[in-house]
């Protein structure tokens, strides 16, 4: 059998950590700014973005911890590594986001149907804070996407996608403050808060589903499976393959594959083919952990073999 453990290079780890630290730092700044803006304006749309930024801080801190923990090499107690920590963290985050979005939605509905329209003050100050929020978020997303392209880290890529999604409620909050100041439409604030809550809930559902699927050993993406099958089918020396199985854990994909080889060749020759195939798969999918079993062509499973 051939196997290759997963290791990030030192430079990749440093880049991933830099993205994680930047994410936590930006989230801290945004929480502080929005706390001040909420105290000054009382706008529910800012409250929604404040909760979202607080969730970002939690998610960023958890993501940073997951990057650090997942980078640990496999050990005696965790022979397949530690990347499932990413999925556990994501599942907890999704549950917390769902609860928070429900709280915002209830508050928005109460304001929307209240007899007395809500009062919003210091719209200009709130707009300045949201403008700074948008600028910081764009800068963070650009850096995270650069790191994700360089390292292929799924945690950084997911965090970047999450912050990209945060631009929508922040832009909505900016519009709500403008509508209040220019047109006197204070109820727009409640509508924006309700839309932000729905956006958060949908995002949380997606995060939770992906984490749950990974924890339940769901197969890899069908395109990845098809790509691995194509590599194996056309690889020199491989007469056929079977029992291609995959599962995901965090940012890693575990691959089990049986290949069929000429039974008359030497063990060294068979091993060389298996090792070369493993390298080719890892080259195409760098986050894959590949285990290859070699069978002679035409071998039939022993009747007492319990595997299916």
Descriptors for this entry?
four-stranded mixed sheet, 2 domains, Alpha-Beta Plaits, 67% helix, Alpha-lytic protease prodomain-like, alpha+beta, 4 strands, elongated
Helices and strands, with pairings:
Blueprint: E1 2-3, H1 10-41, H2 44-70, H3 84-112, H4 123-151, H5 154-183, H6 187-215, H7 222-233, E2 240-249, E3 252-261, H8 267-284, E4 288-296
Parallel strand pairs: 3-4
Antiparallel strand pairs: 1-4, 2-3
Helix pairs in contact: 1-2, 1-4, 2-3, 2-5, 2-6, 3-6, 4-5, 5-6, 7-8
- Output the radius of gyration: 25 Å
In order across it, which strands form the biggest sheet? Answer: 1-4-3-2
CATH level 1 class label of the largest domain: Mainly Alpha
Q: Give the proportion of residues in helices.
A: 55-70%
Overall CATH architecture of the largest domain:
Up-down Bundle
Strand count, sense and barrel status of the largest sheet are: 4 strands, mixed
Q: Given the C-alpha coordinates, what overall shape results?
A: elongated
- Work out the helix count: 8
CATH topology value of the largest domain: Alpha-lytic protease prodomain-like
CATH superfamily of the largest domain: Cation efflux protein transmembrane domain
Which secondary-structure class do the elements indicate?
alpha+beta
The domain tally reads 2
The low-pLDDT segments are 1-9
Elements, N to C (H/E): EHHHHHHHEEHE
Span of the ends, CA to CA:
19 Å
Number of strands: 4
Quaternary assembly:
single chain
- Which percent range describes the beta-strand content? 5-15%
Overall pLDDT score: 77
């Amino acid at each position: 059998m051939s196997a290759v453990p997963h290791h990030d290079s030192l430079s990749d780890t440093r880049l991933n950590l830099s993205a994680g630290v930047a994410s936590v730092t930006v989230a801290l700044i945004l929480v502080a700014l929005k706390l001040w803006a909420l105290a000054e304006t009382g706008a529910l749309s800012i409250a929604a973005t404040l909760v979202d930024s607080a969730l970002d801080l939690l998610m960023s801190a958890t993501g940073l911890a997951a990057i650090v923990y997942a980078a640990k090499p496999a050990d005696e107690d965790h022979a397949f590594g530690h990347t499932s920590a990413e999925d556990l963290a994501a599942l907890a985050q999704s549950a917390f986001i769902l609860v928070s979005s429900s709280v915002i939605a209830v508050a928005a509905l109460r304001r929307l149907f209240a007899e007395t329209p809500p009062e919003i003050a210091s719209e200009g100050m709130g707009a300045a804070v949201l403008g700074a929020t948008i600028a910081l978020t764009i800068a963070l997303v650009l850096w995270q996407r650069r790191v994700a392209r360089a390292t292929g880290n799924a945690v950084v890529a997911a965090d970047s996608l999450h912050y990209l999604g945060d631009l929508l409620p922040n832009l909505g909050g900016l519009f709500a403050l403008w509508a209040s100041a220019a047109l006197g439409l204070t109820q727009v604030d409640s509508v924006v808060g309700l839309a932000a809550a729905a956006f958060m809930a949908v995002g949380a559902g997606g995060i939770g589903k992906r984490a749950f699927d990974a924890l339940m050993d769901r197969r890899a993406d069908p395109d990845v499976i098809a790509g691995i099958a194509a590599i194996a089918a056309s690889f020199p020396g491989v007469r056929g393959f079977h029992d291609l199985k995959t599962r995901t854990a965090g940012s890693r994909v575990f691959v089990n594959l049986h290949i069929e080889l000429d039974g008359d060749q030497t063990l060294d020759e068979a091993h060389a083919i298996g090792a070369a195939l493993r390298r080719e798969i890892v080259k195409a999918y760098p986050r894959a952990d590949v285990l290859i079993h070699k069978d002679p062509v035409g071998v039939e499973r022993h009747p007492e073999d319990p595997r299916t």
